[in-house]
Structure formats: structure tokens, C-alpha cells
From TrEMBL:
<dbReference type="InterPro" id="IPR043917">
    <property type="entry name" value="DUF5753"/>
</dbReference>
<protein>
    <submittedName>
        <fullName>Helix-turn-helix transcriptional regulator</fullName>
    </submittedName>
</protein>
<feature type="domain" description="HTH cro/C1-type">
    <location>
        <begin position="18"/>
        <end position="72"/>
    </location>
</feature>
<dbReference type="Pfam" id="PF13560">
    <property type="entry name" value="HTH_31"/>
</dbReference>
<dbReference type="InterPro" id="IPR001387">
    <property type="entry name" value="Cro/C1-type_HTH"/>
</dbReference>
<dbReference type="InterPro" id="IPR010982">
    <property type="entry name" value="Lambda_DNA-bd_dom_sf"/>
</dbReference>
<dbReference type="Pfam" id="PF19054">
    <property type="entry name" value="DUF5753"/>
</dbReference>
Length: 288
């Protein structure tokens, strides 16, 4: 059982249950924190799944919420135990975006908009080796190697024949024109994009300069959805020092509408493949 447990998702589910129990008792996070002599931020982090939850935390919270049903308590305690197990990414040490990796690993579908670079799930190793130190100039060599390995490992979801990730990418034309590494690296990267876009569960659309102003100009974002109804959709916005996860229904709805507008303004999947292939040819021509 343990090998099939995704700790990130288990923490989310457990946090949602704990929030529901608190709200059912009509308590605020501040009130609960006062009773347990902990900070309000700890209660918030436990409920949003950003912090590991111990069985002791669950026991204490169930006491505050007066949960008498032993089956419920035992179920929550088991979820806490499962949530502390390690996902595959822990083998690589401290990964700053490990919460996102856990969500991505469990997601059934991912819709993403990128304005400046090829999404990590579709990067070649050569492109990754060039773009990662470019975006993080002071990254140590061993950390660069680790990030590249993690990025390549994440891509297994795209190629998984039994449970492939349904991936939809809207890519700004800038990502195709910017020379990351070299024209050779870019040619290989764009040829890879063309190839992977032919997979039945992958759609790549290019948003050309000619589209003018568009909904993505406020920044890049991703929307993750899950098969289990207990797992709400998440909007992920990557930051330099911290990331943002939006789970409120209204927030997810707004970003979903934004994404629909982006897809509508972008080239069709077939026209996008031709556009990317032509961009790859321009990089090849630049090499000669």
C-alpha cells in the first residue's frame, strides 16, 4: 500500500477533512490555535496540506473538534501516517517545488500557459541543461544535476502508457524564438515538441505575436485536475522565492476562463505543429 501512496495528495485530503471538522464546530483557525497553544499559521498550513501532519496533530485536533467516532479518528490517523511517507522525488534530496511535483505526479490532467520557455514536462535534456542555470545563475553544479534528473523523471507521466497525463500547453511564440543554449539545442527542442504533440493525450498550441493582447499577459500559470472527486483542482503559479497554490472554486474558475480565452486565440494544434516545425527550421538555417 505504501508504494502507491502520494504523500502530497494525502496531506491535501487530510487537511480538507480537518478544515471541514473545524468549520462544522464553528471554530476559527485562531480559536483552535489558542486551545492547542500553537500558531494560527500552523493550523492553516495543516489544513492546506503544505505541512506534514503527525498522528499527534490529528489526535489533538480531533480532541478539540470532539470527534467521538473511533472509526473517523482511526481513518484520519492512518492518513496522517501515509502522508509522512516519501514520494519518489525525496530520493533527490531537498526539492524547493516538491509540493508541486507531488500534485503533478497524481494529477489526471494539466493545462499550462508558458510565455518565455518550453514547459519542463516537454524539455529535452539539452534545453534543461541550458535553461536552468540561465534562470538560476547561482545554482551549484550538484544542484543543477539534481534538477535536471528530477525534470527528466517527471516526464515519465507524459510517456506513461497505462496512466498518461492529459497535457494541454499554450506556448507563446517568444519561447520558440528565444535562443536557449544554442541554435542546435533549440532545433532539437522544437523538433521534440513537434513529435510529442502528436501523442493523443498531448495538445500544444502556439500563441503567435499576431494574437496581440491576451489573458496570459499577467503571467504564466498551470491548472491541475484530479480523477478523485475528493481532490479539488489547483491553480499553480510559480514564484522566485515561493509558489502560489489557489484552490478556492472561484479562483480556479477565473483561471479556467482565462485559459479558454488563451486556447481560443492560439493557433490550432495542427497549425501550431507547422509553426513550431518552421521555427525549428529557422534555427537549423542559423547553424549553416
Amino acid at each position: 500500500m505504501a508504494s502507491n501512496v502520494n504523500p502530497t495528495v494525502r496531506r491535501r485530503r487530510l487537511g480538507q477533512e480537518l478544515r471541514r471538522l473545524r468549520e462544522d464546530k464553528g471554530l476559527t483557525a485562531e480559536q483552535v490555535a489558542e486551545r492547542l497553544l500553537v500558531s494560527q499559521s500552523k493550523i492553516s498550513r495543516l489544513e492546506n496540506g503544505r505541512r506534514s501532519i503527525s498522528q499527534r496533530d490529528v489526535r489533538d485536533l480531533c480532541g478539540v473538534y470532539e470527534v467521538d467516532d473511533r472509526r473517523i479518528v482511526d481513518s484520519l490517523m492512518q492518513m496522517a501516517k501515509d502522508s509522512r511517507q516519501q514520494g519518489w522525488w525525496h530520493a533527490f534530496g531537498d526539492i524547493p517545488y516538491s509540493v508541486y511535483i507531488g500534485l503533478e505526479t497524481e494529477a489526471a490532467s494539466l493545462r499550462t500557459y508558458e510565455s518565455l520557455l518550453v514547459p519542463g514536462l516537454l524539455q529535452t535534456s539539452g534545453y534543461a541543461e541550458a535553461v536552468i542555470p540561465g534562470t538560476i545563475p547561482e545554482l551549484a553544479a550538484e544542484d543543477l544535476d539534481k534538477r535536471i534528473k528530477v525534470r527528466m523523471r517527471r516526464q515519465e507521466r507524459v510517456q506513461d502508457q497505462e496512466r498518461p497525463l492529459r497535457l494541454w500547453v499554450v506556448l507563446d511564440e517568444s519561447a520558440l524564438r528565444r535562443v536557449v543554449g544554442s541554435h542546435l539545442i533549440m532545433r532539437e527542442q522544437l523538433e521534440h515538441l513537434v513529435e510529442v504533440s502528436t501523442l493523443p493525450h498531448v495538445t500544444v498550441q502556439v500563441l503567435p505575436y499576431g494574437a496581440g493582447a491576451h489573458a496570459g499577459m499577467s503571467g504564466t500559470f498551470s491548472i491541475l485536475e484530479f480523477d478523485d472527486a475528493a481532490d479539488s483542482s489547483v491553480v499553480y503559479i510559480e514564484g522566485v522565492t515561493s509558489d502560489l497554490y489557489l484552490e478556492k472554486t472561484n479562483d480556479v474558475h477565473k483561471y479556467t476562463i482565462m485559459y479558454e480565452h488563451l486556447r481560443a486565440q492560439a493557433l490550432s494544434a495542427e497549425a501550431s505543429r507547422e509553426f513550431i516545425a518552421e521555427a525549428a527550421k529557422r534555427h537549423a538555417d542559423a547553424m549553416s
